[in-house]
Amino acid sequence: MPARYRSGLTTAMGKRAKRRGHFCWCCGCIRPNEKFSGRGHARHLCRDCSKLGREELNYRQAVRDLERIVDPSRGVIPRRHRAAFERFLAHANERVRRCAEKIAAEDARAREALRQEREAEAEADERREELQAHPSEEESPGEDDLPF
């Protein structure tokens, strides 16, 4: 079954499944329409989150932007997003800077793990090529080893 059917966004007939309510970017929930004020629909901000202060909303938006920079499949920050990430390391808000530093540390660990994995694969490839180029007599079957 294709992934688009399993996710619930498309039915087998090709029609989009309807979602009820709206998505609130701040809390990440799909909330019913009643949980949004008149302006909240357009801003994608539910009533509960709109009660938060401006500073908290700015912090959550910055953290959300930081999480978007990180490549989810490998857990590293791509080179093309490095300049944008550096801005968060010098951010005016201390909480955003700490979050960026934590992500930078995780990025360094993930890059080191990927580097070690590449080196191990390169060593294995070298050994494989060496065995193919110079097969030892023990590994190659001799005429006496034939089953018939």
The dominant shape is elongated
The helix-strand sequence is HEEHHHHH
As residue ranges, the low-confidence spans are 1-6
Largest sheet: 2 strands, antiparallel
DSSP strand (E) fraction? under 5%
**Average of the residue pLDDT scores:** 81
Please describe the topology of this protein.
Layout lengths: L2 H4 L15 E2 L6 E2 L8 H4 L3 H4 L3 H16 L12 H8 L4 H40 L15
Antiparallel strand pairs: 1-2
Describe this structure in words.
- The chain is mostly helical and 148 residues long.
- It has six helices and two strands.
- The protein has two domains: 19-52, no CATH class; 54-130.
- Helix content is 51%, strand content 3%.
- It has a two-stranded antiparallel sheet.
- Helix 4 (54-69) runs parallel beside helix 6 (94-133).
Please outline what is shown here.
With 148 residues, the chain is mostly helical. It has helices spanning 3-6, 40-43, 47-50, 54-69, 82-89, 94-133; strands at residues 22-23, 30-31.
Give the key terms.
148 residues; mainly alpha; two-stranded antiparallel sheet
